[in-house]
Design brief:
By secondary structure, the chain is of the alpha+beta class. Helix content is 32%, strand content 10%. It has a three-stranded mixed β-sheet with strand order 3-9-8, with no helix packed on it. It starts with 37 loop residues before the first strand and ends with a helix.
Length: 310
C-alpha cells in the first residue's frame, strides 16, 4: 500500500558488529508515505485518506481504546514537535522498531526525554534516524507538554504485541534508512544467522498504523532458553535482572518493565549502554552488567524477554 522505499540489505558477515542486526540501516531516500486512496482497518468504524494519514496530525483509528489524549499526543502545533502518536500510537504500542510507552512510569518517561535533550542518550549507530528524530522532539517539547504526554502514556495498560516464531530460516528482508526491516519482494527466505527479525503480522495494516496489528519476532531455536539463563544469572559480575526490574520483569517503582518488549529495541539499548552511547547516573548502574555481555548474549537476552507476557 505504501510507496516503494529504497533500501539496502545489511551485512550478515562475521566482521560486522555483533549487534548489527538490531540497527537496520539502508540508503537515505524520500520519507515513506501512504499511497493515494481511502483506507479502512478491520476493528475501526473510521476511514482516512492518504492525505490525512500523511499529514502532520496523528489519525486515531480506535478512540474507544484509550482515554482522551492531550493535544501533544495527536496534534502538531506550529513550530512544535511531531505528535507522539505518529510514532508511538495512541495505545503506546508503536510502529515497527518504535518503543512501547504504555504503562511506563511517568517519572521514567520524563527522565528519558530529558536524557535525549541533554545529549546523554544517543545511539551507538552514527546518525541513526530515529534517535536524531527523538532528540529533535525532546528539544521542541515544552515541559507542560512533556508532563501531559508522560501522564497519558503511563496510565495505559500494556497488551501483548509480539508473536514468537522459533526458526532457522526467516523471510528475506530489506533495511530502510529509517531503521526498520521490510519484507524483500520475491526473495524467499534466508538463514537467521544469530539474528532476531521483526516483521509486521500484516504489512498493509501496519503501514497505516493499525493499533491492533502486531509484530512477529523470529528467533533462533534455543536462543530464548539461553537468554533465560542469562537473565536469571547472578554472581561472577552478573546481577539477576529481577533485582532491579521486578520479580516478574514487569518493572519496579521507577525502573521500567522489560518483559515483552521489542528485541531489537532491547538489544540496541544494551549495546548503546555497553559502548557508552547512553550515559548518565541511571545508566551507570547498568554498566558493570552490560560490559560483560557479548553480542550473542545480548541477542539471547532479547529473545527471552520478548517471549514473556508484558
Amino acid at each position: 500500500m505504501a510507496t516503494a522505499f529504497p533500501g539496502c540489505s545489511y551485512d550478515h558477515s562475521e566482521s560486522s558488529s555483533p549487534a548489527a542486526w538490531a540497527y537496520p540501516s539502508g540508503k537515505p531516500g524520500p520519507e515513506p508515505s501512504v499511497a493515494p486512496g481511502t483506507y479502512h482497518i478491520p476493528d475501526s468504524k473510521r476511514s482516512f485518506t492518504a492525505d490525512q494519514l500523511n499529514g502532520d496530525d496523528a489519525m486515531d483509528w480506535i478512540p474507544e481504546d484509550h482515554p482522551a489524549p492531550p493535544q501533544i499526543i495527536w496534534h502538531m502545533r506550529v513550530d512544535g514537535p511531531i505528535p507522539c502518536a505518529a510514532c508511538h500510537y495512541f495505545n503506546g504500542k508503536g510502529f515497527l522498531e518504535i518503543p512501547d510507552l504504555a504503562g511506563l512510569p511517568k517519572a521514567y518517561i520524563i527522565e528519558q526525554v530529558q536524557e535525549f535533550r541533554s545529549g546523554r542518550r544517543r545511539s551507538y549507530q552514527k546518525n541513526r534516524s530515529g534517535t536524531g528524530l527523538m532528540i529533535g522532539v525532546a528539544k521542541r517539547l515544552t515541559d507542560s507538554e512533556l508532563d501531559a504526554a508522560a501522564d497519558y502514556y503511563s496510565r495505559l495498560s500494556r497488551r501483548p504485541w509480539f508473536r514468537i516464531v522459533e526458526t532457522n530460516s526467516v523471510p528475506s528482508t530489506t533495511a530502510t534508512y529509517f531503521g526498520w526491516l521490510e519484507p524483500a519482494k520475491d526473495r524467499g527466505t534466508e538463514p537467521i544467522k544469530g539474528r532476531i527479525i521483526e516483521l509486521p503480522e500484516n504489512w498493509d495494516r501496519s503501514w497505516v498504523e493499525d493499533p491492533h496489528s502486531g509484530v512477529i519476532a523470529y528467533i533462533a531455536p534455543g536462543s530464548a532458553k539461553r537468554g533465560e539463563a542469562l537473565v536469571h544469572a547472578s554472581g561472577n559480575g552478573f546481577a539477576e535482572c529481577s533485582s532491579c526490574h521486578g520479580s516478574d520483569l514487569r518493572g519496579d517503582g521507577n525502573v521500567p518493565s522489560i518483559a515483552g518488549r521489542s528485541p531489537a529495541y532491547i538489544s540496541r539499548m544494551l549495546w548503546d549502554m555497553k559502548t557508552g552511547a547512553r550515559s548518565g547516573p541511571v545508566v551507570a548502574l547498568m554498566q558493570p552488567v552490560v560490559q560483560r555481555l557479548t553480542g550473542p548474549n545480548i541477542t539471547d537476552i532479547a529473545a527471552y524477554l520478548v517471549s514473556l507476557q508484558p
